[in-house]
Amino acid sequence: MCWVAKTRVPVTANSMSLDRFFKIRQSIKVTKDLDVSDEEKKSDALWKAGVLYGSLCLGNQIPAFVLAGPNDLVLDFEVYKGQNMFTAQSKMSDGTKLQKQGRGIFEMVVRKPPEVTVTKWQDNKAVLMASVIEPQDSCMRWSVKLKCHDTVPRPTVEAEYNKNMGGVVLCDRMTSFYPKSNHIRKWTVRRVLHFFYLAATNSWIEYRSDYQVSGRPERERMQYSDFKLLLAEEIIAQAQDG
Fold first, then answer.
1. pTM (whole model) above 0.70
2. Which Pfam families match (predicted)?
């Protein structure tokens, strides 16, 4: 899009050709293979991108546990490296069974010791969470059948999650805007680009927070797309200046 005449972005198109851009993107690497021992390769499944995410410390394609603050800023994350096909030994009912029993139904499995409860709660869809919080409360949900709001049981962990979920949800939403890695086959390149998007999103959230404190008119605040374009212009300008 940046190179097409009708939607041309000069700062990008004047810096490199489309073919050069694709060649650079396909060749991106953040780790020298020869510098990584065989032991490290066996112990770290993400060694090809590990240098990058280890230095960012800021998760979606590859699952990650994300720590976000109340101001929506992503503070830290841990990339999940375990198995992703382990449901054969699950002791919990599948979503279809819970859905037939109705909204508000949930079941728990407790690990001992130390005690960690895995809770599966049926809302519009089944919600699965792990926590050490035990009690339950109730919440109001719209009932299509009754055509009114109805009270349904809800695990406390779900209430706490909903209270503090804003940061991670905002980050996921912002990084999903203007996706550029959907058709890239190499997972390492997708990871690198994802971390770039995550860093840009974090920067915009900080900019938005500082702007609100400054007291300037909200209508003059840069939108996320304009912020990313300005960021790209600055990076290109610095590279051209040497």
1. no
2. DDE_Tnp_1_7
